[in-house]
Amino acid sequence: MLTLLPLSLLSALLVGLTYPSSSGNGVNAVRLPFQVRTTNPFGSNSSSLSSLSRRSHSKRGPSSATIPVHNTHNAEYISNITLGGRQIPVLLDTGSSDLWVTGDVPNTTDLGKSVSLNYAVGNAHGNVHTADLTFAGYSVSDQAYLLVTDTSSFSMDIVSQGFEGLIGLGPNTGSTILDEVDNDSASSVLDRIFSQNSTSANYLTILLDRIGDTAENVTGTLTISEIAPGYEKISSMPKLSVDMVHKLTDADQHWQTYTDVNGVIGPDGQPIQIDSIVPSAPDNQLVVVFDSGYTLPQVPRAMSDAIYGRVPGAVYNEASEVWTVPCSQMINLTFKFGGMDYPIHPLDVSSSDFNMVDATGNPVCVGAFQPITSAFSLLGEYDIILGMAFMRNTYTLLDYGNWIKDSSIDQNDPFVQLLPLTDPTTAKNDFVKIRLSGVDSTGDAAHQLLPADQMQHSPFSAGEKKKMYAEKVLSRWPYILVGCLVFVLLMIGLITWRCCVWRKRRNAAKAKTAASMGISTGGLSKPEPAYPLEMQGTSSPVLAKTNYSMDDPYAYHDTKARDVV
Ligand SMILES: *[C@@H]1O[C@H](CO)[C@@H](O)[C@H](O)[C@H]1NC(C)=O
Ligand SMILES: *[C@@H]1O[C@H](CO)[C@@H](O)[C@H](O)[C@H]1NC(C)=O
Ligand SMILES: *[C@@H]1O[C@H](CO)[C@@H](O)[C@H](O)[C@H]1NC(C)=O
Ligand SMILES: *[C@@H]1O[C@H](CO)[C@@H](O)[C@H](O)[C@H]1NC(C)=O
Ligand SMILES: *[C@@H]1O[C@H](CO)[C@@H](O)[C@H](O)[C@H]1NC(C)=O
Ligand SMILES: *[C@@H]1O[C@H](CO)[C@@H](O)[C@H](O)[C@H]1NC(C)=O
Ligand SMILES: *[C@@H]1O[C@H](CO)[C@@H](O)[C@H](O)[C@H]1NC(C)=O
Predict the structure, then answer these.
(1) By the 8 A CB rule, do 135 and 169 touch?
(2) Residue 519: inside a domain, yes or no?
(3) Does the beta carbon of 424 sit less than 6 angstroms from any atom of ligand 7?
(4) Structurally, how many domains does the chain consist of?
(5) 90, 190, 443, 444: which has the fewest Cβ within 10 Å?
(6) Does residue 555 share a domain with residue 429?
(7) Ligand 5 centroid – CA 191 distance (Å)
(8) Ligand 4 atom closest to 142 (CA)
(9) How many CB atoms lie within 10 A of CB 323?
(10) What is the pLDDT of residues 364-395, one digit of tens each?
């Protein structure tokens, strides 16, 4: 009997790695009991898998900077690295920035620094090592990585899932290892590759295939500093500038950008209007993170409801925190970036990759655009995480630009380019063939969306509400900080000013006394009025109070103590 992998644990594990700041301190709920098949969900037909490996040997491409990406259950995308001479399959994660592997690594050097990566499911612990690395045809020496010796905390056998580590492809500022070692030599893999290989093309591209889609002919591919053959059109796609998080929290920086205004078009063809939680986001635009380490995209709950809540027969599964829908329902969904449409394949909007059944035991599909809960950004840095079910629909280019400090050539701002891969008409035919046995019943009365006023809503949990309140405060911390600073400065100013007034008054009083005694006090030939401020005639209550305290005989002697306050 095969053990069943709780996929949620994987997502949770990735959450832990990817969003350390928002997932620390055990605030993460572990998502249970999601279950996927551990065998190829599409039976013995692994043609799409073998075609991937075949491509690696065919070398039709221009260079070894183009490598195959292996797809496990549409839930994990994996490529090989060579570390210390050993070939290791690692999960590709654009949402984090560290490299970790398990098992033996030859020719490795232990730096003696231990690092803990926080998982929602436990704590993975290991020492930072360095070893020579080759990735996508590029080699770096002494790459820093975390050698995880104890994998028991993973709650699953990652090796049986086809990987023995994870490579973070996010910005260097997010690297925990770099933070710990505190030496540029411990930078992330891509940072090292681009730094040593000065190029104006500081980019990585990634192309994810879809298992179970017989019509698709995408081959999972990753490239560095070059475009996958056949996808050159990506160069003409809009450059989406990366939305930068605050400098002080840039460990949380991700590959993130804004949608267009009203940039998510729901199943009824109308925009889904949701307010961003990001304080700096322009009206009607949302901040999305591109994260290849996330199986299911995470969207605001109201958006998930808008996508699935009007589907006849939709049921919200509270235990798994997903909508389930009849697999025969085609659901349209389109994202808009830089004026371009990015339609989502209906096979990705509702996924058959999970063995879910309804109350009567009939198979149901999972609403892949899941309400965001554990990955909710408490600092209010993003609204949506676009994981694999989104990224299968685009050929994605991530340009690191001036994130690479040592690269003298490309000092432009980082950006993202997306080439849409899903044609709605082709995708619909595909869906009809695969889910509807070739009979187009998408227009049937049974498949019409419910009227908007009959839309179902999924329940907010108490914890979720708390997080949303916390976010409202935490996301505004720069403003709150500035507010506090201004307040402190005002107080200091006020106190200083009071002291000046007192000194002036005392000096004036002294001068007056001296003058009346016929003694010259320096250059002060004409004594100042004793109460210059009172003479301004201001009615400010603060001043009034000041004047009042000035009459306090102890005030003069007290100024030192007051300065401290
Ligand atoms: C395997 O997939 C191919 C197309 O990719 C299809 O022609 C063939 O019938 C499938 N075989 C099985 C056993 O499903
Ligand atoms: C990784 O390397 C192994 C062993 O050489 C090979 O069997 C596998 O196909 C490779 N995987 C990928 C995604 O290239
Ligand atoms: C790495 O280790 C392998 C096997 O342990 C050995 O054959 C090889 O010479 C080593 N390479 C280096 C550069 O030390
Ligand atoms: C950083 O690492 C490099 C290479 O390991 C080493 O030569 C250098 O001395 C280190 N710098 C600091 C400040 O530790
Ligand atoms: C740098 O990139 C060029 C072109 O891709 C390649 O020929 C060269 O080997 C690379 N250098 C290193 C050190 O990887
Ligand atoms: C598959 O690839 C070929 C060659 O790249 C292309 O001509 C064809 O349109 C593709 N088919 C689909 C369904 O995308
Ligand atoms: C969904 O998309 C298909 C394919 O583009 C289109 O034919 C259909 O009218 C769309 N449905 C709605 C409700 O917009």
Answers:
(1) no
(2) no
(3) yes
(4) 2
(5) 443
(6) no
(7) 14
(8) 5
(9) 26
(10) 999 999 999 888 898 899 999 999 999 999 99
- The pLDDT value recorded for residue 375 is 86
Distance CA(360)–CA(379), nearest Å, equals: 42
Query: Same domain for 551 and 454?
Result: no
Same-domain check for residues 437 and 545:
no
Tell me how far apart the alpha carbons of residues 496 and 100 are, in angstroms, rounded to a whole number. 55
Q: Are 77 and 292 in contact (CB under 8 A)?
A: yes
Q: 514 lies in a domain?
A: no
- On whether residue 517 sits in a domain, the answer given is no
- The binding-site residues of ligand 2, defined as CB within 6 angstroms of any ligand atom, are 53, 56, 68, 70, 78-80, 87, 89
What CATH number does residue 287 fall under?
A: 2.40.70.10
273 located within any domain: yes
Instruction: Give the closest residue (by CA) to ligand 3 atom 4.
Output: 106
Strand, helix or coil for residue 184: helix
Q: How would you classify the pairing of strands 203-207 and 394-399?
A: antiparallel
Picking from 451, 475, 499, the residue at the C-terminal end of a domain is 475
Question: H helices of 28-83, where?
Answer: 47-58
Sequence-ordered list of residues with C-beta below 8 angstroms from that of 522, at least 6 positions apart, any chain: none
**What tens digit of pLDDT does each residue of 467-485 get?**
888 888 888 777 788 888 8
Report whether 177 contacts 115 (CB < 8 A). Answer: yes
Ligand 7 touching residue 268 (CB < 6 A): yes
Cα-to-centroid distance, 502 and ligand 3 (Å)? 78
Residues 6+ positions from 236 with CB-CB distance below 8 Å? none
Ligand closest to 329 (CA) is 7
**Quick one: pLDDT at residue 61?**
36
**At 87, is the secondary structure helix, strand, or coil?**
strand
Token digits of residue 373: 């809960």
* Alpha-carbon separation of residue 206 from 35, 156, 227, 424 (angstroms): 27, 26, 9, 21
Angle at 46 between CA 43 and CA 51, to 5 degrees: 165
Provide the whole-model pTM: 0.77
Three-state DSSP class for residue 146: strand
Position 40 pLDDT exceeds 70: no
Does residue 428's CB lie within 6 angstroms of at least one atom of ligand 7? yes
Domain of 552 in residue numbering reads as 538-563
Ligand nearest to the CA of 87: 2
Nearest Cα residue to atom 7 of ligand 2:
53
In angstroms, what is the span from residue 137 Cα to ligand 3's centroid? 19
Dist. CA 327–CA 301, nearest whole Å:
21
CA 165–ligand 5 middle distance (angstroms)? 25
Task: Name every protein residue with a CB atom under 6 angstroms from any ligand 4 atom.
Answer: 183, 185
Cβ atoms of 439 and 343 within 8 Å: the answer is no
Task: Give the helix/strand (H/E) hosting 276.
Answer: none
Ligand 5 near 196 CB (within 6 A): yes
Instruction: Please report which ligand is nearest the Cα atom of 106.
Output: 3
The residue from 475, 505, 522 where one domain ends is 475
CA–centroid distance, residue 39 to ligand 1 (Å): 16
Ligand nearest to the CA of 219: 6
